Amino acid sequence: MQRQADISQLLLALNDGDAQAMDALVPLVYEQLRKLARARLRSERPDHTLNTTALVHEAYLRLVDVNQMEWKGRAHFLSMAARLMRRVLVDYAHKRNALKRGGGQRNLALDEEVLFIPKAYAEKVTHLDEALKRLEAVNPRMSQAIEQRYFGGLTLEETAEVLGVSLATTKRDLRFAQAWLAEELGGEIDL
Amino acid sequence: MNERWQQIQDLFDEVVELDPGACQARLEAVRQGDPELCRRVQSLLAAYARRDDVLGLFEEPKEPLPGFVGRQVDRYRILKQLGRGGMGSVFLVQRDDQHFKGLAAIKLIRRGMDTEDILRRFRNERQILAALNHPGIARLLDGGMTEEGLPYFVMEYIDGAPLDHYCDQHRLSISERLDLFMGVCEAVQYAHQNLVVHRDLKPSNILVTTDGQVKLLDFGIAKVLNPVMSAVSMAVTRTELRVMTPAYASPEQILGETITTASDVYTLGVLLYELLTGHQPHRLGGRLEPELVRIILEAEPAKPSMVVTQVEEIQGRDGATSTITPEQVSARRSSEIKQLKRRLRGDLDNIVLKALRKEPSQRYASAEQLGADVQRFLFGSPILARKATAGYRLRKFVLRHRVSVAAATLVVLSLVAGLGAALWQAQVAQHERDVAQQEAEKLAQVTEFVVSVFEISNASESRGDTLTALEVLDRGAAWVESEMMEDSEIKAAMMDVLGRIYQNLGRFDDAHAVSGARLGLASAGARRHPPGGRPEPAPPGVAPPDEGGL
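Output (structure tokens, whole complex):
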């Protein structure tokens, strides 16, 4: 219960632009993530890959009871979630990229679940994140739209609401942003 | 910098919607004056075309198979193509040797899969799968590898239509659909008992033969083809197979958790939802992966009884849109929309939603349980899905103990009214709008109390019972009079119901002296409409089996 109140506070602070709130929230989501990941690992075969995006979503959902929040609106809440999830995923991806060994071995003391993130996935996430940062420098609204859709899983309507623009504008934003990102990333990732 | 960006975006926005000819022309015109702008936009257009590959969205494998018809694959001669799915194509084959004469179906797995791996897993599973011997399951006969190294499976050939088409074509009613559905549950249960989980149930995998027999295809194949069931991921490489169909995937499948029989139950829930309503529980068409994940993990499906009244536009795989309307849905179920809604409301709603719970442990534990509840519904017995409220048991009790329940009904109503107008509205309108959790709980408590009171009164169809009912009725009526001072809508409605109950009880003995006030109530019975504007409900005790409210 106490935890819920803390998290609510942090999220509100985050919404008000408090960058430090993000720093405080990430470890909480992490903790939840690791619990989930560990539970998964116990029942999985060694060649199984964790679905990272879904895990982050679930961790987030378990942390916060969306309905309990006094919030501007569900969409705004979710947009915070999207930011948070992006951050967590990118952190995980960095860790994964830093690992020299390949998957299959489970003898790291900390963050062992990181090993189960596919290498290709981790690379993709970091590249996307960097490209998004570049996009943000020229068109923050587009960058945010992508963040909402790809990291938060917000619907088109929710995204439009959060950005404060029409649905048509959001669609155009996303379309162009997708093209722009595909251009940036196309040369780097070979799927 | 900003202006330039805007220029680029504007031009991109303009040409991306044009057909290739017009687009070319426009860009050519631009190139004359500003070659750099043209180049930029061309590059963006090209990138946009490839965005699915780069950004990792869901994709259908588009590669065509080489011409297989007429060829020989091991002992099987390919006669014609039957269909095509995500993992490969199905062909009709003929086998003609001393062991087996006749037709079969061969499923050729598409290029790009790890053949050795598949075959290895197949060998492990083969015995189990081949041992599945049930009229509702298409038998797996054989498996192997073609010359080109494509894995294949040979199955019993089933001549039938996919379940959803069959039901629609024959305009099967709800009961008839439920009947077929129970057959599906039975087959699934059999497989589960033999430790085989389907993992990829969907209407196209369930055929119905001309004599109305349900046949499930591809049991266990999904596991052989891909043990990694978490196919929803942003960076899934091309070679990883997306066996799972998102629309039918359970939350735990999305999350990559252990697949259990409960996962099949979920899928059966999706199937049932579709069979009953013509809609899918979640609108997933054309959405990005993270959105899909969220929806499947979070979003609660609309109640079947509600969704049938909606008009929905769906996008087919080829991009064409079609519309689902209430008229269409009810016609295909040989019903009228109002009738259909009534039939679905209450028990069926709950059965479907229970199967679709996000938490596996909250669903039916087995396909058998699900089928059994469907059967109970068809018989008018209380179903499992409504486990909590005593009020529900009470309602079912109505069917069998008419007289006594009249009193209980009244008491419930009066207590409900006592909890506030809002609660009364909620009680009456419970199928028109969502009951707030708190209120629902209060209501549950109230009905618990009532049932206990009622049980103490010793319900049975004896004279003593009628006596008790009248007493209870009197008490209730007195309560309404005293507690409800103002002449409110609620009070009027209460009196209306009271009157009707008294009428129903019918007998006003001297021995059980009914006061003038009561008689007055009785005659005033038919005057007013109940709140919510619903057509007058049948008197309690003769409510039809699927009537939702008390």
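The mean pLDDT of chain B is 68.
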